[in-house]
């Protein structure tokens, strides 16, 4: 039996199939036409709905409760399936792609890199990199905000990953490589692997960028190991963190770690690539969408300016706290609700089981969508409106668990969530303190632009005019 037939036959008979499913293509035409509109149409058919992506069938959870059950039970609903196979080609067995059996150990080893005590150090690097990129803008210049935020997010990750280990030419090559790999990876998620073999320039570029990024990381790991110094960056934590139980040491030896080290070189490379891919586009999109939405709301822009002027007031980042930026924080939260970067999270049932009242057979692919839940009108009144004040304590209504999940839920929840929120809040505040961004004539003025079809909820190019707020 073929894989797709096996999957089809394993789907529960109580799960309704969404209309508009074509032979062979499944719902690809609807997804290509408007993937997010398609997601939003699904709750009308039930709490679990069957959809098809090409010959692959999956079951979409349309309620917070089924999402909670699915994401919490990470042994029964494990990472796996065709989308993860594609992701593993580039991220290896890193934390996002590894199965349940390998995850606990990895998470424990990587978590210290994101400990809250490290955040002030990372925030200083973030502030520097934001200044570096925005410092090159000229008063009145039209910039593509989506592209500029991609630069900021990639520079921040590279420098927090390995401080100043990269000379500027290598940094610039790595920025290009990240861009090529992120874009190429997004396309590959929707294309059959056979197409990778075609001798196309895009395939060659992608393979070259992927190999060069790995080799850059590998070179830095070798240098760091040789110097034995803690550089206060993410890579130093990955290199120095240690196993503490005998069982873990056994795993470590089995995976060929050097004696006393907990993550082997290959594992560290996988984690570093995972951070770069998981943390660049998602955070860049969030900041870009936030700037775009603020630019379309002059009253909100004014309130934001008042807040950042009074909090930042020309002082260094060390003198104020991110929590002082209340409105800025609400804008980021609302942006993550309206445009959560991850529109689709998938899992595979490892055994015959149930989800809610539905029987689920082993091998079924389950899908969960922050975007779908964040746009349900029974959870959020006027769900398509951008309203940061819906998060004010007096207006914030009690939401069920998983009604808001831009960073996922359960043990596989994003490890970089506070890092990402800090980065997005800082970028929005710092940019707003110095620049007023006006929608340029083009797609970012007038009607709200639609996200493009990608692995994340990605904005199209967002041309905006950068006007310096204080002329020197
Ligand atoms: C706005 C920015 C971000 C968003 C919305 C986001 C979202 C997510 C989501 C939804 C997951 C769970 C995936 C799943 O359940 O299948 C995840 C996992 C993960 N994210 Fe993020 N992420 C962001 C930024 C970052 C950053 C900056 C980093 C690292 C520097 C990062 C590293 C990771 C890693 C390593 C995992 C896997 C966690 C695990 O399985 O234990 N993310 N992220």
Characterization of the model:
The chain is of the alpha+beta class. Helices cover 49% and strands 10% of the residues. The protein has 16 helices and eleven strands. The strands form three sheets. The chain has a six-stranded mixed β-sheet with strand order 1-2-3-9-6-4. Helix 2 links the parallel strand 1 and strand 2. Helix 7 (145-162) packs antiparallel against helix 12 (265-295) and helix 12 packs across helix 16. The longest helix is centred in the middle third of the chain and has 31 residues, at 265-295. It is globular and about 70 Å long. The protein starts with a helix and ends with a strand. Residues 1-9 and 245-261 have low confidence and may be disordered. Protoporphyrin IX containing FE binds next to helix 12 and helix 16. Residues 95-96, 107, 157, 274-275, 278-279, 282-283, 286, 341-342, 345, 406-408, 412, 414-416, 419-420 line the site of protoporphyrin IX containing FE.
């Amino acid at each position: 039996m073929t894989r797709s037939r096996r999957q089809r036959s394993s789907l529960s008979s109580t799960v309704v199939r969404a209309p508009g499913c074509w032979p062979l293509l499944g719902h690809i035409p609807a997804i290509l036409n408007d993937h997010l509109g398609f997601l939003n149409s699904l709750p009308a058919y039930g709490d679990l709905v069957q959809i098809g992506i090409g010959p692959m069938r999956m079951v979409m959870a349309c309620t917070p409760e089924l999402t909670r059950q699915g994401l919490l039970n990470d042994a029964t609903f494990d990472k796996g399936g065709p989308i993860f196979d594609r992701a593993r080609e580039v991220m290896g067995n890193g934390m996002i792609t590894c199965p349940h059996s390998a995850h606990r150990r990895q998470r424990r080893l990587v978590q210290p890199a994101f400990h809250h005590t490290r955040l002030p150090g990372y925030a200083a690097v973030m502030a520097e990199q934001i200044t570096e990129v925005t410092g090159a803008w000229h008063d009145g210049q039209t910039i593509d905000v989506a592209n500029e935020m991609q630069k900021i997010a990639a520079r921040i990750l590279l420098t927090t990953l390995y401080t100043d280990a990269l000379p500027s030419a290598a940094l610039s090559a790595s920025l290009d490589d990240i861009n090529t790999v992120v874009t190429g990876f997004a396309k590959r998620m929707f294309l059959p692997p056979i197409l990778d073999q075609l001798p196309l320039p895009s395939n060659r570029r992608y393979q070259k960028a992927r190999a060069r990024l790995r080799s850059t990381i590998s070179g830095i790991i070798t240098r760091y190991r040789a110097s034995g110094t803690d550089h206060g960056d993410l890579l130093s934590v990955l290199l120095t963190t240690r196993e503490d139980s005998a069982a873990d040491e056994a795993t470590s030896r089995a995976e060929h770690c050097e004696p006393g080290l907990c993550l082997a070189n290959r594992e560290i490379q996988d984690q570093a690539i995972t951070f770069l891919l998981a943390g660049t586009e998602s955070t860049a999109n969030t900041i870009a969408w936030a700037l775009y939405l603020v630019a379309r709301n002059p009253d909100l822009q004014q309130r934001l300016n008042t807040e950042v002027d009074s909090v930042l007031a020309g002082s260094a980042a060390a003198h104020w706290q991110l929590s002082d930026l209340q409105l800025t924080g609400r804008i980021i939260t609302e942006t993550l609700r309206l445009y959560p970067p991850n529109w689709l999270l998938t899992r595979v049932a490892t055994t015959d089981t149930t989800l809610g009242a539905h029987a689920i057979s082993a091998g079924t692919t389950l899908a969960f969508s922050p975007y779908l839940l964040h746009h349900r009108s029974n959870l959020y009144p006027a769900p398509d409106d951008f309203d940061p004040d819906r998060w004010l304590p007096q207006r914030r209504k009690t939401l069920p668990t998983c009604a808001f999940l831009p960073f996922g839920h359960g043990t596989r929840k994003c490890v970089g969530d506070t890092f990402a929120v800090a980065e997005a809040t800082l970028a929005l505040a710092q940019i707003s303190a110095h620049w007023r961004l006006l929608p340029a004539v083009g797609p970012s003025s007038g009607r709200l632009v639609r996200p493009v079809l990608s692995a994340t909820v990605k904005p199209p190019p967002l041309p905006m005019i950068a006007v310096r707020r204080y002329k020197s």
